Amino acid sequence: MSRLPHPIGFQLIGKSALVVGGSSGLGLGAAVALADAGARVTLAARDRARLAEVQALMHARGWPVEIVELDITDTVKTAAIIAAHGPFDVLVNSAGLARHAPAQDTCEADFDAVMAVNLRGAYFVTQAVAKGLIAAKRGGSLINISSQMGHVGGMDRAVYCASKFAVEGFTKAMAIDWGAHNIRVNTICPTFVKTPLTQTTFDDPDKRAWILDKIKLGRAGEVADIMGAVVYLASEASAMVTGSALMIDGGWTAD
């Protein structure tokens, strides 16, 4: 052997990252992970006051962070904002909405609201970032925060599952379309993660028991559990990974 393989690092120095839904929960975890790896992060969400709070906290750590108010259900405005602030080397789309109910009780308003964010919004955010990269003749890594529920069914989650299965589908198709441009498109699929949005689920003893029974590692997810995956998919360490779903589900889907 004449030489050892050259190690590929996880550093993102010089990279520009857009984190949609970056003011709380999984999006905030992703933003912190990317900034810590050296990326210049732009946080996007609907609540500008909350974004400003997070920006101040991240600036205190010495991380260069910009903020932009963004509602991805307004696809025209979203595309214009991304074009004005980009191109972005990395996208993490963590914006999401859940309205759970038994399938027989689904109303059209809830169906439309979930799909507007989880599917339509996610699709056109990903498209807008890709368009900027293609125009600039740059490669990139586009990451949608999907769910284990994009691979299995769950009680009271027919609409949510439908939206996430769709995200998995368009991710694979976009990976095919944009591979020639060196644009990678992947999903991260967490299990139930403890955040303020999931607190009501964990407060229900029956649902908590169902969750812990299905997760083979015997615990719910934490925001920190997705942070390494975000850096991996954003970095050159995953240069040959596209059209894939990275499961962070504690073994839920292993059955």
Description of the structure:
The chain is of the alpha/beta class and 255 residues long. The chain has one domain: NAD(P)-binding Rossmann-like Domain (Rossmann fold), CATH 3.40.50.720. Helices cover 44% and strands 15% of the residues. It has 8 helices and 7 strands; from the N terminus they run βαβαβαβαβαβαααβ. The chain has helices spanning 25-36, 48-60, 75-85, 108-136, 158-178, 199-203, 205-214, 224-234, and strands at residues 16-20, 40-45, 65-69, 90-93, 140-145, 183-190, 245-248. Strands 3-2-1-4-5-6-7 form a 7-stranded parallel sheet, with helices on both faces. β1, α1 (25-36) and β2 form a beta-alpha-beta unit.
The CATH first-level class comes to: Alpha Beta
Extended strand count: 7
Shape: globular
CATH topology: Rossmann fold
**Count of helices?**
8
Contiguous runs where pLDDT drops below 50 for at least 5 residues = none
Radius of gyration: 18 Å
Count of individual domains: 1
Strand content: 5-15%
Brief digest:
This protein is 44% helix and 15% strand.
Topology:
Elements: E1 16-20, H1 25-36, E2 40-45, H2 48-60, E3 65-69, H3 75-85, E4 90-93, H4 108-136, E5 140-145, H5 158-178, E6 183-190, H6 199-203, H7 205-214, H8 224-234, E7 245-248
Parallel strand pairs: 1-2, 1-4, 2-3, 4-5, 5-6, 6-7
Helix pairs in contact: 1-8, 3-4, 4-5
